[in-house]
Write a structure and sequence with these properties.
There is one protein chain. With 333 residues, the protein is α/β, with parallel strands linked by helices. It has two domains: 5-113 and 308-331, ornithine cyclodeaminase, domain 1, CATH 3.30.1780; 119-305, NAD(P)-binding Rossmann-like Domain (Rossmann fold), CATH 3.40.50.720. The chain is built from ten helices and 15 strands. Helix 4 (144-157) links the parallel strand 7 and strand 8. Helix 3 runs parallel beside helix 4 (144-157), helix 3 (111-129) crosses helix 10 and helix 4 (144-157) packs parallel to helix 5 (169-183). Belongs to the ornithine cyclodeaminase/mu-crystallin family. InterPro entries: NAD(P)-bd_dom_sf, ODC_Mu_crystall, ODC_N. Its EC number is 4.3.1.12.
Length: 333
């Protein structure tokens, strides 16, 4: 057998790539369009709960046709108490394979990939479903994905006002300080959910609740807003979907099953179903379904996280790494 080699990018390599906002958005949007055209395979995520800590593993699987031409599996640990150990709450690894032979092609630290692609999907959802003149962002949550939500949304909308809130005062202040430095504009820290989201043009809920709790009130959402709830445990009222003109998800297959997710109760009660669902985001990106059609629409986008986005962004990183001479080649066999 001929030797088999695979590319390896660790966390320092990923940082050295310095992926731009435009590069992250382009790779993610391309994967969404590919999914929308039916040129991808995606399987619903599965969960592994070790039972020894407050957390679980998500296992995501999928494949994209050419030009990416890769199958991939990402395993991401989601452990909410990791901050007590000085660790990120989410640590991830991505394996890419040749879809024709099963030969491993690459192994990447995917913690940053998870954060970046999550923020990119949030931003692309807003690109197609939010008002073009959206100028106020209300963001709840300060975990890793939160930074890229705000950064990539601001890249598209250049907000006049950004409000942030999270459960721990120190985390929300650190979050706001980092955003203020990196975005070059002030970020408002709020002490409660209501003052963060009420009246905002775009509302993102990325909270870290221990159990489903309806903290975000439907009455706070203004007409014409765009809302993205994606916390692992639901923070919204059951009535939230009642005020929406369009309900959009990233992948209906994985949204309709499983025990976790911000709209789990809405699926179980029938408020979100195949009949009430407007589209998957990929269908909108591919031009097969309409996005926002009027300024008066109030729209909701729920994303669970797509393996396809991980694969596409990982592929883009590998392409850039080869060009810049970053990373290592490991012998597999």
């Amino acid at each position: 057998m001929q030797p088999i080699y695979m590319d390896y990018l660790n966390r320092l390599d990923i940082e050295a790539l310095a992926m731009t906002d435009a590069e992250i958005l382009e790779a993610t949007e391309t994967s969404l369009a590919t999914q929308g055209r039916g040129e991808a395979v995606i399987e619903p995520r599965v969960h592994l709960e070790p039972g020894v800590a407050n957390g679980h593993f998500n296992v995501l699987r999928g494949a994209l046709k050419e030009p990416i031409d890769s199958a991939g599996v990402k395993v991401v640990g989601d452990f909410v108490d990791n901050y007590k150990l000085g660790l990120p709450s989410e640590l991830a690894s991505l394996l890419l394979f040749d879809p024709r032979t099963g030969v491993p092609k690459a192994f990447l630290d995917a913690s940053a990939i998870t954060d970046m692609r999550t923020g990119a999907v949030t931003a692309i959802g807003a690109k197609y479903l939010a008002r073009k003149d959206s100028k106020i962002l209300g963001h709840v949550g300060a975990r890793g994905t939160a930074y890229w939500n705000v950064r990539l949304l601001n890249h598209l909308f250049d907000f006049d006002e950004i409000r942030v809130h999270s459960r721990r005062p120190e985390s929300r202040q650190d979050f706001a300080d980092r955003l203020t430095r990196d975005l070059g504009k002030p970020v408002v820290v709020t002490d409660d959910w209501q003052s963060c989201v009420e009246g905002a043009d775009i509302v993102v809920e990325a909270s870290r609740l221990d159990a489903p709790t309806p903290v975000l009130k439907t009455s706070w959402i203004k007409k014409g807003a765009f809302v993205v709830p994606y916390g692992t445990m639901s923070a919204i009222e059951l009535s939230l979907t009642d005020i929406m003109d369009k309900l959009v998800v990233d992948d209906w297959g994985q949204c309709k099953g499983g025990k976790f997710g911000s709209l789990r109760a809405h699926v179980e009660s029938g408020k979100l179903s195949a009949d009430t669902l407007h589209a998957e985001l990929g269908q909108i990106v591919a031009g097969l379904k309409p996005g926002r059609q009027s300024e008066a629409e109030t729209n909701l986008f729920w994303h669970r996280g797509l393996s396809l986005s991980d694969i596409a962004l990982g592929h883009a990183m590998l392409t850039k790494a080869r060009r810049l001479g970053i990373g290592q080649r490991l012998r597999y066999a």
